[in-house]
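thought: fold this chain, then report.
action: predict
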Amino acid sequence: MNITAADVNKLRQMTGAGMMDCKKALTEAEGDFEKAVEILRKAGQKVAAKRADNETKEGIVLTNVSEDGKTATILALACETEPVSKVEAFRTLADDILAAGVANNIKDKETLLAFALADGRTVAESITELVGKIGEKLVITDYAQVEADQVVSYNHSTGKLGVLVAFGNTQGNDVTEVGKDIAMQIAAMKPVGLDKDDVDPAIVQKEIEIGMDIARQEGKPEAMLEKIAMGKLGKFYKENTLLNQEFVKDNSINIAQLLENTQKGLKVTSFKRVQI
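observation:
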């Protein structure tokens, strides 16, 4: 069957796939455009399966805060190499996925992946199709939506790090200024929890074991190891939980004191730090 340049260009406009891939798909489909589209989609699935174990160390993190400041959404779309993270189709897809999450009040990644975009394809199918065009593994590594009295966001200049900070008991006041300071603190200092009760028990146990091992190597008596480890755990909490961390702009106070100094009773209720 004679496949014309116009046919190939039409399929390319429909799918965004390369000219040679479109010609090959149309030839295999004997000119049937619907079959050709399906062939291209299956090609994307094959590439995705082949590259499933590849690492994704590049990509983009996007955030969105609602006009009233009470709801914020964060998305990380990852790829294998930096050049792909700058491709227009990659960034457009990331924007479209985030917009869908925001517009439809989607709370979690699983629901987002199953959601149908404007062209009828799900988010998961759209990602797979772009995998076929680009030839790299693409994956949503993180997605979350946060609600509070006010949520403040921060995006690092690299485009690969974003933070959401949720505030409670704002009493209707705008906490954007202190929110930006705390968001940048989270970006730089990487707290593992809000307060000590918020830290994963597995992390706590690991820190206790490390503390005991260090004390043992230093020749401390076996009966004293746990007590020494618990002392080190207190230092761990101070350095790695947000409310107990020293404020980077003024190390004479911690974040809990910064909040109280800003407005009596002001709280950080949660935070989300996402990095490619």
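thought: worth noting. The mean pLDDT is 91.
final: tokens above.
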